[in-house]
């Protein structure tokens, strides 16, 4: 038998082993385990603020950790930092490239980042000495578009790219510290674990991967989706992962059981999931869809308990504030809305 | 792709699968119970779940009384 054939056989055997090992711990399902609790009552959130100012589709938004600030990115070529209570624009940052697909707020509140079809991640210092917001660093090395970025600190950021890799960068030197390779399709989204030790990525190979940031390795791979994964997030306790896909479903995968526990789907929903965010306790999952709506799911019972209808175009991004008090949606209709 | 680089790639795939196969897995009953417990323990601190009065809601303007 040739070496290639032998390796193929070994790969198939290992895949079967993993399937069997997952089945071996499947002594129940989340549905069965949660049978005794009642579905959450109807969740009716209202638009409290509308943030107007972008002149084109909004592609991304991210809440700051402190305060009620958030940053949004639009293909009008601007990053806007908003005070969501007053609706004032704290900063309006013009971008070199208007083809932006992602933005992020550093936990410190000092920096924001963005990137897109320019294949770069640009870091901006909001707290520069003369008050002007300038590009601090341009992180260039990806050979495909930048789909997502998340700060670990003011000195490190993780990016995901259409070149099928994720990268951990040293912002100070502008160099790649670690390249996380393994996905067989464009990486579309990433999320960092609450303890900052791991991150998860969702890709166009229909899988989600859990990466050990310091060791630089993939620890677990989750399949089951039937199309691209566009959105990904950690369950607030860090032990589970939620994904949203073009296959019109969201799924919850438990990291310790190493398998999918539940799928959030409805026969009436036939369009892709673009974005998602869990509420503070994890009981609610807010997911944005291509049909202009946000569906709110009871994460334990897998039932739809609410809808946010208010945008006139696709909901492209969603985020729950750090204190859990509000949810922000961004849309191709150029508006952001704050709901609670 | 040349034959030798295909083999290198395949070796990496096998190595990764070995790593993932070696994981210690927790029973689903335990994992599900922990997820439920977390949700229930934190439910009262989840404003989107429990709702809030307008006086506690920073996004709603507080009612202001003025003397006419």
From TrEMBL, chain A:
Annotated Gene3D superfamilies: YVTN repeat-like/Quinoprotein amine dehydrogenase (2.130.10.10)
CDD domains: WD40
Record field: transmembrane: none
Spans of repeat WD: 51-92, 139-179, 180-221, 222-263, 308-340
Biological process, per Gene Ontology: signal transduction
Superkingdom assignment: Eukaryota
Keyword annotations of the record: Coiled coil, Repeat, Transducer, WD repeat
Keyword Repeat among UniProt keywords: yes
Coiled-coil region(s): 4-31
Pfam families attached to this UniProt entry: WD40_Gbeta
Homology family: Belongs to the WD repeat G protein beta family.
Name recorded for this polypeptide: Guanine nucleotide-binding protein G(I)/G(S)/G(T) subunit beta-3-like isoform X1
Native source organism of the sequence: Parambassis ranga
TrEMBL record, chain B:
MF (Gene Ontology): G-protein beta-subunit binding
Subunit-level organization: G proteins are composed of 3 units; alpha, beta and gamma.
Function: Guanine nucleotide-binding proteins (G proteins) are involved as a modulator or transducer in various transmembrane signaling systems. The beta and gamma chains are required for the GTPase activity, for replacement of GDP by GTP, and for G protein-effector interaction.
Name of the protein in its database record: Guanine nucleotide-binding protein subunit gamma
Keywords: Cell membrane, Lipoprotein, Membrane, Methylation, Prenylation, Transducer
This protein's GO CC annotations: heterotrimeric G-protein complex
Similarity field: Belongs to the G protein gamma family.
G protein gamma domain segment(s): 3-68
Primary location group: membrane
GO process annotations (BP): G protein-coupled receptor signaling pathway
SUPFAM superfamilies recorded: Transducin (heterotrimeric G protein), gamma chain
Pfam families: G-gamma
Compartments it resides in: Cell membrane
Family annotation (InterPro entries): G-protein_gamma (IPR001770), G-protein_gamma-like_dom (IPR015898), GGL_sf (IPR036284)
Membrane topology of the entry: Lipid-anchor
């Amino acid at each position: 038998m040739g070496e290639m054939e032998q390796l193929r056989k070994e790969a198939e055997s290992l895949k079967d082993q993993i399937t069997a090992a997952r089945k071996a711990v499947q002594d129940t399902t989340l549905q069965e385990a949660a049978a005794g609790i009642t579905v959450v009552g109807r969740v009716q959130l209202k638009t409290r603020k509308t943030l107007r100012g972008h002149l084109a589709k909004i592609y991304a938004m991210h809440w700051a950790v402190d305060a009620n600030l958030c940053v949004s990115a639009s293909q009008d070529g601007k990053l806007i930092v908003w005070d969501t209570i007053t609706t004032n624009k704290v900063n309006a940052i013009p971008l070199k490239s208007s083809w932006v697909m992602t933005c992020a707020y550093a936990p410190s509140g000092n920096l924001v980042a963005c990137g897109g079809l320019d294949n770069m991640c640009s870091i901006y210092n909001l707290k520069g000495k003369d008050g002007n917001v300038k590009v601090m660093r341009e992180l260039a090395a990806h050979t495909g578009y930048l789909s997502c970025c998340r700060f670990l600190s003011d000195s490190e950021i993780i990016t995901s790219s259409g070149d099928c890799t994720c990268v951990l960068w040293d912002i100070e030197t502008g160099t790649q510290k670690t390249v996380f390779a393994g996905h067989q399709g464009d990486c579309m989204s990433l999320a960092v674990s609450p303890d900052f030790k791991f991150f998860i990525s969702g890709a166009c190979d229909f899988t989600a991967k859990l990466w050990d940031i310091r060791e630089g390795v993939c620890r677990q791979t989750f399949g089951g989706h039937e199309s691209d994964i566009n959105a990904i997030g950690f369950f607030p306790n860090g032990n589970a992962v939620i994904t949203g896909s073009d296959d019109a479903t969201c799924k919850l995968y438990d990291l310790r059981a190493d398998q999918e526990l539940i799928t959030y789907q409805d026969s009436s929903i036939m369009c892709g999931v673009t974005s998602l965010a869990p509420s503070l306790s994890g009981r609610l999952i807010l997911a944005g869809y291509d049909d202009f709506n946000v569906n709110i799911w009871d994460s334990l019972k897998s039932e739809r308990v609410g809808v946010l209808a208010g945008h006139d175009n696709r909901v492209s991004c969603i985020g729950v504030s750090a204190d859990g008090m509000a949810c922000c949606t961004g849309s191709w209709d150029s508006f952001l809305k704050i709901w609670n | 792709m040349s034959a030798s680089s295909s083999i290198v790639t395949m070796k990496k795939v096998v190595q990764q699968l070995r790593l993932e196969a070696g994981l210690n897995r927790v029973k689903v009953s335990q994992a599900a119970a922990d997820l439920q417990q977390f949700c229930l323990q934190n439910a009262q601190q989840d404003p989107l779940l429990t709702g809030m009065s307008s006086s506690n809601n920073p996004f709603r303007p507080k009612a202001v009384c003025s003397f006419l």
